[in-house]
Amino acid sequence: MDPYHRMLDRSGDANLVERYRKVYDPGQPGFVVMEQELKKLSQYAREHGIRLYLMMIPDVHDLVDYKFKFVHDIMHNFAKANGYAYVDMLSAMTGLRPQEIWAMPGDPHPNAFAHKLMADAIFPLIVQGSLEK
């Protein structure tokens, strides 16, 4: 059984949502460090004329009844405030079942189809960005 289902079986769906809320809390030390480092990267990119993209990939365990949209909102706001082009894969993946996008049963890493979805989403933005220079 994968860790996601072990967590759900032990503590329930609401606790997983609460865990994500804690991880993405603006005062949480790990979140603060992430923001600081991504802001440094943003500043470096501005100084050197580099375009940055932040691709948000949803938690792929349950894309039918997705409960983590608030994480996407947090990261979208961060990207917008710090000069990142934001690409959200949630709409492209909503409703997909694990067997459609997981590398193999029990392994939620993206398979070839999931990678194609991501490439199809970001490629036009990269091409457009390169044409703007």
Helix content: 55-70%
Series of H and E elements: HHHEHEHHEEH
Would you report the number of β strands?
Answer: 4
For the residues shown, what is the average pLDDT? 90
Give the CA-based shape: flat
Biggest β-sheet strands, sense, barrel? 2 strands, parallel
User: What is the count of structural domains?
Assistant: 1
Strand residues, percent: 5-15%
Low-pLDDT stretches are: 5-9
Strand order across the largest sheet: 1-2
Any idea what the radius of gyration is? Answer: 17 Å
Helix-and-strand structural type: alpha+beta
Number of helices: 7
Distance between the termini: 49 Å
In terms of quaternary structure, the protein is single chain
What this model shows, in words?
By secondary structure, the protein is an alpha+beta fold. It has one domain (3-131). The protein has seven helices and four strands; from the N terminus they run H-H-H-E-H-E-H-H-E-E-H. The chain has helices at residues 3-11, 13-23, 29-48, 69-81, 90-93, 98-101, 112-131; strands at residues 52-56, 84-88, 102-104, 107-110. The strands form two sheets. It has a two-stranded parallel sheet. It has a two-stranded antiparallel ribbon with strand order 3-4. Helix 1 packs across helix 2 (13-23). The chain is flat.
